[in-house]
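Hey, does this match?
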Amino acid sequence: MNYPPEMWTTAVKMIAALALVIGLLFVSLHVFKRMYKNKLGGQTGDLIRVLASSYVGVKKNVTLVEVPGTVLVLGITNDRITLLSEIGREAVDAALGPDTGLKKPMAFTEHLRRMTHKSKNDLSI
Protein backbone atom coordinates (compact mmCIF):
# COMPACT_ATOMS: atom_id res chain seq x y z
CA MET A 1 0.00 0.00 0.00
CA ASN A 2 1.33 3.32 -1.00
CA TYR A 3 -0.19 6.26 0.81
CA PRO A 4 0.26 9.78 -0.41
CA PRO A 5 2.87 11.81 1.54
CA GLU A 6 0.17 14.18 2.86
CA MET A 7 -1.33 11.39 4.95
CA TRP A 8 1.97 10.67 6.74
CA THR A 9 2.64 14.30 7.51
CA THR A 10 -0.93 14.76 8.75
CA ALA A 11 -0.62 11.69 10.99
CA VAL A 12 2.71 12.88 12.43
CA LYS A 13 1.27 16.34 13.10
CA MET A 14 -1.78 14.83 14.80
CA ILE A 15 0.33 12.59 17.04
CA ALA A 16 2.66 15.47 17.91
CA ALA A 17 -0.29 17.70 18.82
CA LEU A 18 -1.79 14.95 20.96
CA ALA A 19 1.52 14.41 22.76
CA LEU A 20 1.80 18.15 23.36
CA VAL A 21 -1.71 18.37 24.84
CA ILE A 22 -1.15 15.35 27.10
CA GLY A 23 2.21 16.75 28.20
CA LEU A 24 0.62 20.10 29.06
CA LEU A 25 -2.07 18.31 31.05
CA PHE A 26 0.53 16.44 33.10
CA VAL A 27 2.56 19.58 33.72
CA SER A 28 -0.50 21.59 34.78
CA LEU A 29 -1.64 18.74 37.05
CA HIS A 30 1.78 18.66 38.71
CA VAL A 31 1.79 22.43 39.22
CA PHE A 32 -1.78 22.37 40.55
CA LYS A 33 -0.99 19.63 43.04
CA ARG A 34 2.08 21.46 44.34
CA MET A 35 0.30 24.79 44.69
CA TYR A 36 -2.87 23.53 46.35
CA LYS A 37 -1.59 20.51 48.28
CA ASN A 38 -2.55 21.82 51.73
CA LYS A 39 -5.87 23.28 50.63
CA LEU A 40 -7.27 20.11 49.05
CA GLY A 41 -7.44 17.78 52.02
CA GLY A 42 -3.77 17.03 52.32
CA GLN A 43 -2.75 15.50 55.64
CA THR A 44 -1.03 18.55 57.07
CA GLY A 45 -1.52 17.92 60.77
CA ASP A 46 -3.33 15.98 63.44
CA LEU A 47 -5.57 18.72 64.78
CA ILE A 48 -8.76 16.73 64.18
CA ARG A 49 -8.81 12.95 64.55
CA VAL A 50 -11.65 10.44 64.47
CA LEU A 51 -11.15 8.13 67.45
CA ALA A 52 -14.11 5.80 66.98
CA SER A 53 -17.33 5.52 65.07
CA SER A 54 -20.30 3.25 65.66
CA TYR A 55 -23.37 2.80 63.49
CA VAL A 56 -26.70 3.21 65.22
CA GLY A 57 -29.00 2.82 62.25
CA VAL A 58 -29.23 3.36 58.52
CA LYS A 59 -26.99 6.35 57.73
CA LYS A 60 -26.83 7.20 61.45
CA ASN A 61 -23.78 6.87 63.65
CA VAL A 62 -22.14 8.17 66.79
CA THR A 63 -18.55 9.32 66.42
CA LEU A 64 -15.80 10.32 68.85
CA VAL A 65 -13.74 13.14 67.38
CA GLU A 66 -10.63 14.49 69.09
CA VAL A 67 -9.85 18.18 68.75
CA PRO A 68 -7.09 19.87 70.75
CA GLY A 69 -7.98 19.69 74.42
CA THR A 70 -11.27 17.80 74.20
CA VAL A 71 -13.13 14.90 72.65
CA LEU A 72 -16.47 15.56 70.99
CA VAL A 73 -19.28 13.01 70.81
CA LEU A 74 -21.10 13.69 67.55
CA GLY A 75 -24.36 12.27 66.26
CA ILE A 76 -24.15 12.07 62.49
CA THR A 77 -27.11 11.48 60.20
CA ASN A 78 -27.59 11.82 56.47
CA ASP A 79 -28.26 15.56 56.63
CA ARG A 80 -27.08 16.74 60.05
CA ILE A 81 -24.20 16.63 62.52
CA THR A 82 -25.19 17.21 66.16
CA LEU A 83 -22.91 17.73 69.15
CA LEU A 84 -24.08 15.23 71.77
CA SER A 85 -21.43 15.82 74.42
CA GLU A 86 -17.92 17.03 75.15
CA ILE A 87 -15.53 14.81 77.07
CA GLY A 88 -12.15 15.79 78.47
CA ARG A 89 -9.18 13.96 77.00
CA GLU A 90 -8.23 12.66 80.45
CA ALA A 91 -11.58 10.86 80.83
CA VAL A 92 -11.18 9.15 77.46
CA ASP A 93 -7.62 8.09 78.29
CA ALA A 94 -8.77 6.71 81.65
CA ALA A 95 -11.63 4.76 80.06
CA LEU A 96 -9.98 3.47 76.90
CA GLY A 97 -6.25 3.83 77.47
CA PRO A 98 -3.81 6.43 76.16
CA ASP A 99 -3.52 4.95 72.64
CA THR A 100 -7.12 5.42 71.53
CA GLY A 101 -6.32 7.44 68.41
CA LEU A 102 -6.45 5.88 64.98
CA LYS A 103 -3.24 5.70 63.04
CA LYS A 104 -2.73 8.42 60.48
CA PRO A 105 -4.14 7.19 57.17
CA MET A 106 -1.55 6.21 54.62
CA ALA A 107 -1.39 8.35 51.48
CA PHE A 108 -2.37 6.80 48.16
CA THR A 109 1.16 7.19 46.84
CA GLU A 110 2.49 5.22 49.82
CA HIS A 111 -0.04 2.42 49.16
CA LEU A 112 1.01 2.37 45.52
CA ARG A 113 4.71 2.35 46.41
CA ARG A 114 4.23 -0.58 48.80
CA MET A 115 2.17 -2.54 46.29
CA THR A 116 4.69 -2.08 43.48
CA HIS A 117 7.58 -2.90 45.82
CA LYS A 118 5.78 -6.07 46.90
CA SER A 119 5.08 -7.12 43.31
CA LYS A 120 8.74 -6.51 42.32
CA ASN A 121 9.85 -8.73 45.22
CA ASP A 122 7.38 -11.43 44.14
CA LEU A 123 8.76 -11.39 40.60
CA SER A 124 12.37 -11.71 41.75
CA ILE A 125 11.67 -14.84 43.80
Remarks:
- DSSP finds three helices and four strands in the chain.
- The chain has a mean pLDDT of 79.
- Residues 49-102 form one domain.
